[in-house]
Amino acid sequence: MTQDSSAVQPQSGQRELVLRVMPMPADANANGDIFGGWIMAQVDIAGSILPARFSRGRVTTVAVNEFVFKQPVSVGDLLSFYATITRVGRTSITVHVEVMAERDPENPHIVKVTQANLTYVAIDRQGKTRPVA
Question: What is the pLDDT of residues 23-34, one digit of tens each?
Fold first, then answer.
């Protein structure tokens, strides 16, 4: 049986669902909203998935170019993280991440709560920059 490696190769400009998670009470800040740092960590994880697949190896975050919190996130919101590769350089890949929250199971609706642009650099096993595959 052969594997088609192109089946998992992300395409530049194509939006993809890369992560889905529900924040819990332990992720809340003193005001009862989800802590912004927790959301940033999830965005960084989600943002790294396409660059790692595209470059076929390790990547590391080199820049958070933009990060916008549009609405508070609540415990129980179902968060969906969508990523799009917006730029591919020699060693770096820039990604746009949008976070959508599905709210109120009795009257469900979806709102954009966060968006960000992050740049990742492809690295080898020694942590040195390498060309994107």
Answer: 999 999 999 999
